[in-house]
Amino acid sequence: MVAVSSDPRVAQPSAFVRAEFERQQREQGNPRPSSSVIPGVWQGFLPYLSDPSLRALVPSLNDPDVALLAPNGTLVRYTGMVRDMLNPEYFAGAYQSAQTGEWRTTKYEDFADEDLGAARDTVVWERKPLFCVSVAGESDWVRGRQTRPRLGDPASDAPAAPGGEPSRKRPADEEGPQAAAMMDCDDPQTVKRRTEAEGQSKPPCCSGSATNSAAGCCLSPGGDLDAGALVNQSQGDSPCLVKLYDAVGGSAGQSQSQQRFGLEGIKLNDVIEVVGVLGSDPRLALFQSGQAGEGEEVTAEDLANNPPASQVPRLHVICGRRVGCYGELAERASIAANLEALRASRERVEASRAKTLDYLSRSVGGDRLAAEYLLLHLLAHCRRDGGSPSAAVVGKHSLNLVGGRDFSALDCEAILRVVGSLVPRIRSLPVSLRGLNAGPLWPRKDYRVSRLVGGPLLLADQTHLFLDETQLGEGQLGQCGVQNFQALKGLVENQQVEVDFQFYRLPVPCDVPVTVLSRTKSLLPCDTCVHVARMQGQQHTELPSETELDELRSYIVHCWMLDYSIPDTVSEVLQQDFVLQRQKDPSTVGAEHLHRTLTLARLLSASRGETSLSVETYRALGELEEKRRARAGG
Question: How far apart are alpha carbons 417 and 323 in whole angstroms?
């Protein structure tokens, strides 16, 4: 069993909630509850999220041992990315006891202590389930923990047995279909249906048929109940069904330090950290075990949204917060100490910048110019004016590193290894004809189970996406390949991913800096294209020590979090230069050129530790641009 703190709020959080609810009911004369909010509960558990010493007492569901062995009803915490937002659930949140006539609550619980059918009265409340998974692409140095093997992965990734040997000797796909069938405990017809369902994961558009519609490629054929059981097995590591109550926010008048805690306006891709009550009651697996009530119809959606708690634990959220990518890193002790030194010394910033450039240049064959642009790109992030998904994207930047004919997979791996040791989130995606035609990269709705499925492009904000085009050869794209290319183009140009709901597409805004690695200029419309000039004799070197890497990571966090402004005097210089450039070349110098210049100026200023743009930094950007254009031949 997992050790549980002796703190009563950690061991029995529901007891504290019920006590608070019943105390307030007695003080008010036992009225019928008019609101689902129980005053004092959010404030009572907030310290377990905000105070590091109390937070350490709460077991984490991201630890596979906790997820499997923690007792039902324990206070736990969880960090994950919102992968899907399910339909609201309506439940009897309060009931009047048939025995005493007192009002009691079932909030943050899956089942009531009494038979609700015999209750004198009930009040229906609402909660919002979110299907969350571990953050895709999170760097190993950020996790610092063992992650739960993905459900359905080969047994080679499974946890070891008590004797130290893997729980299975070989993956099922190496043993052949007959061995896999012999090991399956289900009846042959069920095994056959599951095998067919797994084989149908390839969408119709990938078969090459020209008759399949764009919506058709978003749904797998068939309507077997197995689809409901399988949908949770391929969505990501450490899945959790998170259930939100009352928007999980504080009340009016909360302190300034508490205002960053709350989950109002949560959307897809958001990373959240929550504290709440673990729901692992065996009765939650009712549909899977075939014990549904007589005459009740079990649908694929029921199976998808009610998986066994051993596969997908439930967490009834009491309090939570959004997790900022670099804000969370700034709270680490090793990073925080370096940040203080960087804020206090401009010389320290300059020294850290030089070390970071030297480290990045190793990954691009000693090319300092390519390292400069790669550093600027690591600091890129965008926003939308007005907050609307359809608003103009400001500050986006995409980078294309062109390595020439000798640019190999080994060179790409060196870049990924170096960048991955510096940024907290990174994801690579090989771009080849076979890969583009193989299956959709965008997320889509499977209406058989009423769930979003698939979508490698559905990433958390500030996940650096590297597209490897060195494997791209000659050939023809099918319908699915063309749509995948359009999805990549939409991500690069507009920083959004479209979710296919079969009858319409819904754009989801994101902040995913994209780097394209290619031998020639990419077909994707990247903002900046740099031709890499590798130096002879440059070899890929090993990573520095963790202490040295922490210094470089702290520098990136410091630069990323800096405020920024453009003084009026510098603004006048920018306007004059823009007018002169437009007079010389009106065909290429326009609004997009100005936006790109302002973005790069901000990034260069931040990399130097400046909070406002100076004329010196602006002129330095002009010199960088001249060198870059000279390499490209214009």
Answer: 24
Nearest residue to 398 via CA among 530, 504, 251, 497: 530
Provide CB contacts within 8 A for 346, sequence distance 6+: 609
Side chain identity at residue 566, one-letter code: I
Distance of CA 13 to the CA centre of its chain: 28
Ramachandran angles phi, psi of 624, nearest 5°? -60, -45
Name the token pair of 315. 């967490």
Strand ranges across the sheet with 528-531? 426-430, 464-468, 514-518, 399-402, 528-531
Return the closest-CA partner of residue 224 out of 449, 501, 452. 449
Beta-bridge partner residues of 271:
81
Cβ–Cβ under 8 Å, residues 601 and 621: yes
Task: Provide the sign of the torsion angle of the four alpha carbons 142, 148, 149, 152, taken in this order.
Answer: negative
Tokens (6 digits) for 225: 């109940």
Better-scored residue on pLDDT, 415 or 328? 415
Q: Are the C-beta atoms of residues 164 and 250 closer than 8 Å to each other?
A: no
Integer-rounded Cα Rg, in Å, for the chain is: 27
According to the model, what pLDDT value does residue 408 have? 85
Write out the two tokens for 96: 């009047």
What is the torsion angle, in degrees rounded to the nearest 10, for the CA atoms of residue 118, residue 120, residue 123 and residue 127? -20
User: Is the pLDDT reported for residue 174 higher than 90?
Assistant: no
- Mean pLDDT (whole number) for 208-212: 35
Q: Which residues does residue 514 pair with via DSSP β-bridges, in sequence order?
A: 465
Q: What is the DSSP letter of 480?
A: H
pLDDT tens digit sequence for 105-123: 999 998 888 899 899 999 9
* Sequence-distant (≥ 6) Cβ neighbours of residue 203 within 8 angstroms: 216, 217, 218, 219, 220, 439, 440, 480
Encoded tokens for 527: 């903002």
CA dihedral 25, 27, 28, 30 (to 10 degrees): 40
For residue 269, is it left (φ>0), alpha (ψ between -120 and 50) or beta? left
Distance separating alpha carbons of residues 272 and 284, to the nearest angstrom: 24
- What is the token pair recorded at 312? 């997908």
Which residue shows structure tokens 């530790």? 609
Model pTM greater than 0.85?
no
| Amino acid identity, position 255 | S
Asked whether 98 and 300 are in contact (CB, 8 A), the reply is no
Residue 626 above 70 pLDDT?
A: yes
Helix (H) or strand (E) holding 431: none
Question: How far is residue 338 from each of residues 140, 400, 552, 634, measured CA to CA in Å?
Answer: 21, 31, 9, 41
Question: Is-contact 316 275, C-beta < 8 A?
Answer: no
Half-sphere exposure of 313 (CA within 13 A, CB side): 31
Burial of 573 (0-12, 13-18, 19+ CB in 10 A): middle
User: CA–CA separation, 602 vs 569, rounded Å?
Assistant: 16
In whole angstroms, what is the distance from residue 335 CA to residue 338 CA? 5
Q: In which element (H, E) is residue 551 found? A: helix 546-560
Inter-residue contact 318 to 263 (CB < 8 Å) = no
Look at residues 491, 515, 561, 547 and name the one whose alpha carbon lies nearest to residue 363.
Answer: 515
C-alpha distance from residue 431 to each of 203, 303, 361, 363 (Å): 19, 35, 24, 20
Tokens, residue 484: 């995948």
Q: Are residues 598 and 397 in contact, defined by beta-carbon separation less than 8 angstroms? A: no
Tell me the C-alpha distance between 273 and 254, whole Å: 19
